[in-house]
Amino acid sequence: MNFPCEVDLQEQCPVCGDKVSGYHYGILTCESCKGFFKRTVQNNKTYVCVENQQCKIDTSKRKRCPFCRFQKCLNVGMRLEAVRADRMRGGRNKFGPMYKHDRALKQQKKALIQARRLRIESNQKDVTFTSNIHSIAILHNTKLNPNQLPSQPCNSPAVLQHQITSPTNWAMKLENCSNSVELAALAEAIIGPHHTSSRSISTQSPRIPQLEIEFLHCDPHDLQLQKNIFSCLQQEQACRHREPSTFSSVYVMADQLLCSIVEWARTSIFFKELKVSDQMKLLHSCWSELLVLEIISRQVLYGTDGGLLLIITDTEMYLFSGTTLSCVQVSYTLNSFNKSLKIVSQIVLFLSDVKELEEHRFVESVQQQVEGALLKYTLASSSQSCNRFTCLQLYLSELHSLSILAEDYLYYKHLSGEVPCNNLLNEMLHAKCCWT
DNA sequence: GGTCAAGGCCAA
DNA sequence: TTGGCCTTGACC
């Protein structure tokens, strides 16, 4: 992952990049842009751009074009209604709770970055890979097989060989895709063409373990996803000349879910506006969180009673009950938010603290808009919305922890070569391998 | 009483 | 006109 050596705690004004002095008119800005926005609104000023209305605004050029500066103020989220018509001084306005939640979220974000950095440092200090590996499994009334726990050190010849013969670079292909159709074509190229249109899944597909069938039935509306998964499983069976193992089946499903997540992201509001390079950086940073959220969401929406459970364990088998409990809590909490799950996904997508984004200010303003949207949704949907909003933020932290466990386990499987080849999940894990 | 986001003031 | 600093006052 792309982590800077030092997290920049000094906020920059999203309009001009100057030092932020506090919340002003809805967002964090510098004193200069605060004053500029206030004067413009209070005095009903109108400006004209002598260029093409796309002037660059930074600390040195912000005085040159007030038109573009004011447009940028509005674009990054400064609120006209926060300027008081009666010019009353002092006091608080209606944005107070929003500022409070935004601060809490930023604090949480910093804590997450810190935790992630500590974890990476901890991983780097470990001599063997098995000392801190965690396991993730999708179970259905079964227990984890102790044999599934890692036993191979990461610097073994087999692992090194696997790293050398890594799959083709999916990221480069993604960069060349300009729309969802091309992306779907790429996904098909990665997983192989599916022939389910002329065949009956029930008669022609490989023998799939019961738990995977139940998993597929979790989302009866997602037929295309089911077809893709069956197609991949058929291909996996043909390649290995035997039935896919339970783990391979789960891996294929996770990979296909990941493909659908990427497709959703690339066509979603805000994200599609970003440059492809920024899209890739964000996705590389949060794919595992989105994947875990997707799995939990499907569990909540389609299989809450006696269905599949996402269970996280440590290497010590008997320690997993506590984490399991928290995972179930996440599910039930998210259940009450099921209509806003895509907003939650947007938060995860844009919450990633990725440095060196070309459009980092746009991403920051989107973060605020998405958080605002979720707050509005919770305010409109429940009298206890403030508690729910705070709760959700806490569970986002839990989601992040779960995703780290999932990544670790899949990463180990990736290194040990136990996974199906040539897929998106492998590419993400291979990228992780290069970054850490 | 402290905090902090409003508006106001004024030198450059 | 700008932008740094000051004053104000609701909220905690």
TrEMBL record:
<keyword id="KW-0238">DNA-binding</keyword>
<feature type="domain" description="NR LBD">
    <location>
        <begin position="214"/>
        <end position="432"/>
    </location>
</feature>
<dbReference type="GO" id="GO:0008270">
    <property type="term" value="F:zinc ion binding"/>
</dbReference>
<dbReference type="InterPro" id="IPR035500">
    <property type="entry name" value="NHR-like_dom_sf"/>
</dbReference>
<feature type="binding site">
    <location>
        <position position="413"/>
    </location>
    <ligand>
        <name>a phospholipid derivative</name>
    </ligand>
</feature>
<protein>
    <recommendedName>
        <fullName>Nuclear receptor subfamily 5, group A, member 1b</fullName>
    </recommendedName>
</protein>
<keyword id="KW-0804">Transcription</keyword>
<keyword id="KW-0479">Metal-binding</keyword>
<dbReference type="InterPro" id="IPR013088">
    <property type="entry name" value="Znf_NHR/GATA"/>
</dbReference>
<dbReference type="GO" id="GO:0009888">
    <property type="term" value="P:tissue development"/>
</dbReference>
<feature type="domain" description="Nuclear receptor">
    <location>
        <begin position="10"/>
        <end position="85"/>
    </location>
</feature>
<dbReference type="InterPro" id="IPR001723">
    <property type="entry name" value="Nuclear_hrmn_rcpt"/>
</dbReference>
<dbReference type="InterPro" id="IPR016355">
    <property type="entry name" value="NR5-like"/>
</dbReference>
<dbReference type="GO" id="GO:0009755">
    <property type="term" value="P:hormone-mediated signaling pathway"/>
</dbReference>
<keyword id="KW-0539">Nucleus</keyword>
<dbReference type="GO" id="GO:0004879">
    <property type="term" value="F:nuclear receptor activity"/>
</dbReference>
<dbReference type="GO" id="GO:0090575">
    <property type="term" value="C:RNA polymerase II transcription regulator complex"/>
</dbReference>
<keyword id="KW-0863">Zinc-finger</keyword>
<feature type="binding site">
    <location>
        <begin position="322"/>
        <end position="325"/>
    </location>
    <ligand>
        <name>a phospholipid derivative</name>
    </ligand>
</feature>
<feature type="binding site">
    <location>
        <position position="409"/>
    </location>
    <ligand>
        <name>a phospholipid derivative</name>
    </ligand>
</feature>
<keyword id="KW-0805">Transcription regulation</keyword>
<dbReference type="Pfam" id="PF00104">
    <property type="entry name" value="Hormone_recep"/>
</dbReference>
<dbReference type="GO" id="GO:0000978">
    <property type="term" value="F:RNA polymerase II cis-regulatory region sequence-specific DNA binding"/>
</dbReference>
<comment type="similarity">
    <text>Belongs to the nuclear hormone receptor family. NR5 subfamily.</text>
</comment>
<dbReference type="InterPro" id="IPR000536">
    <property type="entry name" value="Nucl_hrmn_rcpt_lig-bd"/>
</dbReference>
<dbReference type="InterPro" id="IPR001628">
    <property type="entry name" value="Znf_hrmn_rcpt"/>
</dbReference>
<dbReference type="Pfam" id="PF00105">
    <property type="entry name" value="zf-C4"/>
</dbReference>
<keyword id="KW-0862">Zinc</keyword>
<keyword id="KW-0675">Receptor</keyword>
